[in-house]
Amino acid sequence: MPTIKDIAAKAGVSHGTVSNVLNKRGNVSAEKIQLVERIAKEMGYKMNVQAQQLRAGTARRVCVIVPKISLKCYNDLYTGLEQVLREHDISIELISTNNLERDEEKAVKKALSLNPMAVVVVSSLLKNRGVFTPDTRFFFAERKVKGMPENSVYISFGFEQAGRDIALKCIGDGHQNVALLCENSIYSNNKSFMNGVVDVLEDDNCSCKLFPGDDSMWFNKAFDILGSKEEFDAVIAMSQEDADYLKAAHQYNPDKTMPVIYALTSKSIGIDPDVCRYELNYKLMGRNIAGQIIHAGGEDAEAAPAKKQQIIMENDGFYEKSLPSAGKKESICFLTIQNLTSKAIGMLLPSFTRETGIEVNMIEVSYDEHYKMAQTCVQNSPYDLVRIDMAWMTELGDKIYRPFDGSSSSVQWLRQQILPSLSENYSMVHGIQYAFPLDACVQMLFYRKDLFEDELIKREFFEKYKRRLEIPKTFEEYNEVARFFTRKENPDSRTRYGAVTSYGRTFLAACDFLPRFRELKKDIFDARGNVNILIPEMKQAVRNYLDTCRYAGSAVYQWWGEPTRQFSEGSTAMHIVFSNYASEMIHNPESKVVGRIAYDTVPGGQPLSGGGSVGISRFSKKYDACMSFLQWLYRKDIAETITYLGGYVCNRQISRNMDILERYPWLENMEKSFEPGWRLYKHDRNPDFNEFLFEDILGKAIRSIASGIEGMDDALEKAQAECEQAFNR
C-alpha cells in the first residue's frame, strides 16, 4: 500500500504538499494539485479516513441509540439525522437496544469508545447510572433521564398536549367508552401522553380503560381490546404500529364491531381511512438535532452550552381526512393553467366529489390561451373558480374575482393555511383580498455543486481572479463565475457555458433581466409616479445582461423548458429559472447531472415571484361550493399530497413534511426565497400602470438589444415612449 511519503517522492514535492492535497486543505497551486492527484491515482493510494479522524482527536461520527429501528418513529428520527449529517460528511453509527437497560448501557459504552462528536439516544434508562458522561455531548430524544449531564440537550414533543388533543377530538366525535392502548408508562413521553388523555376523558365523565404493555405485547393487547366484554366505541393508540395490530386483530374477529382508532403517529404522506392520525414530526426532530450537532457540538465544540437545554417541538396535529358533505350534488367549473399542479389536483378530484358531492369540471389551458381566456372573464364568466398569474393581479384581479369577506370564519381559516409572505402580491388589489396564492414559485439559482466543490477548479479560479470560488451574491460576481466556466473564455472549463439566458419571447426576456435591474434600483417611478426607465441603473443592468449573454451560447430559447434541458445535459454551470422547473433538472432520469445540483437565492437577492392565484368569479352563483373546494384544496393532507405528486399548493405546513423535502429538497430554499421575492410594481399616483404590459414593453427592448437588432439607447428610448403612452399622464 503506497504512503504519502511514496507519493511525495515520485511527485518531487514535500510530504506536507501531498497531505494538503489529499486532505483538501492548504495553499497548493492548481498544477501541483493535478500532479499529486494523478500520481496518487496511478499508485492506487486510498486514504484511511478512520485513522485520520483518530489523529484529529474526535471522529466525524455521531452515534444513535434507539430502542427499535423497526418502529417508524425511530426510523424517521434516524433518517432525518442521517440526511443532514451526510451533507456534512459525518457518518452515523446506529445501535438498537430492544428497550433493554443492560443493552443500552453496553451501547453507550460502545458509542463512547468510538470518540464521537455526539450521541443521540432514545433512552430506556430512567436515571443516569454513570454511563452518560459530561465530556461527550448527549442529545436525549423523546424520553427524559434523571441526572442528564449538564451539557446535554433534551428534545421532545408536547406529548401531554397530544393526549389532550386526541381525547378532545374523541369526545367531539361522540365517543364515550374508550380503550387506551398504551406503551410502558415508566417513560416520560408515554406518561405525559397518558396523563393528557385520561385528564380530559375523566373531566368529561367518559369511560377510559387502560391496556398497558410494551411493543412485544401489542398484538396480544389488540386481541384483548377486541375480545373484551366491553364494547369500546374508540381506541386511542400510541403508535401507528399499535393501530396496525388492532386492524390485523380485527381480521380474526370480523363479527366484532371495530372501534374508531385514534393514533399518535410519525408524520407521513397518505390517508389511512381506518385511523385518525395525530402526527409528530420525527424526521424534523432528527434534522433539528443534526443542525445543533453541526453548529455547536461538532464543528464548533466551544459553542456547546454549559447547561442543559430543553427543546419542545411543535406537534403537527391531526392529519385531516374529510370535510362535511355539502348535502346536495352540485358542479363547479374551474379555469386554470396546464401544469403539474393542475395535473395533481385532477388526480385527487374524485376524493373531493366523494366527500362533498360536488363535481369539479377543471379546464386546463396553455399559458398563451390562459391570458386571453382570463381577459374574457372580466365581462362575463362561465367559470366559478379562476386561476390567474400573479403578474396579472393588478390588471384583472378586482375585475374577475369576488372580494372575500375577511370576517368569514372560512376565509380566516384559509388565511391561516397560507404562507404569510405570499399574502400581499398573490391575494390583494388596493388592499382588498380577492384571491389566495395557489401554485406560487420564485426564481432560484441552480448550479453544479460538483464544480463549485472541486479543489482543483477552486484553485484555478483563485489563481485567475485572486478570490475564492463561491456562490455568486451579485450579478457582477455571477458574470465573473460564468466567464470562468465558459470554454471559449477558459479552454480548461469542464462546461461549455457558464450560464443560460432566455430572451426568445418578451415575457421571458423581462423575467430574465429584471432581477439585475432590481439589484441596482428598486423602483421605476419618478417623484410624480411616471414610469422612467431612461436612468443609469437601467443601462448598467442591460450591460450586465449583455455580459451574461456572452457566456450563455447563441441559442434563443422560446420557453424555460429548453434552457433547463441544456443545463440538465451538463453543458452549463449555472441556471437561473423559476423553481417549478427544478424537478426536470433534479429528478429527470435522462439528466446527466442528477445528484450534482445545488440551489441558492438569485444574485442580488431580488428574485421574481411567479405562479398564480385562485379566486371565485364575481359572476358565480355557487359561492358555498367554491369555498368547500378551496377549503379542501388548502387542507394540509391535500396540499401535501398535491406537492408530493409534483405540484405545489401554498400551505405553510409543506416545508415541515420531510417526506416531501426528501423528494423535492429545493422547496425549503424556495419558501425562504418567497420573502425577498417580488413581481408587482405599484405607485399610488399611477393607477394606469399595468405590470403585465410593462413587462411586455421592457421585454421587447431587452430581446431586441440581446439579439443585436437595436442598440441599447434606441431600444430603451422606444420602450420609454411606449411607457409614456400607456402609463404616464
Automatic annotation (TrEMBL):
Which Pfam families does the entry link to?
A: LacI, SBP_bac_8
- GO terms for MF: DNA-binding transcription factor activity; transcription cis-regulatory region binding
Residues in HTH lacI-type domain copies = 2-56
The family database entries (PROSITE patterns) matched by this protein are listed as: HTH_LACI_1, HTH_LACI_2
The reply to whether Transcription figures as a keyword in the UniProt entry is yes
Lineage from the top down? Bacteria, Bacillati, Bacillota, Clostridia, Lachnospirales
Protein name, entry field:
HTH lacI-type domain-containing protein
Give the superkingdom in one word.
Answer: Bacteria
The species this protein was found in: Hungatella hathewayi
Which segments cross the bilayer?
none
SMART domains, per database record: HTH_LACI
Any idea which UniProt keywords this protein has?
DNA-binding, Transcription, Transcription regulation
Keyword Transcription regulation tagged: yes
Annotated coiled-coil positions are none
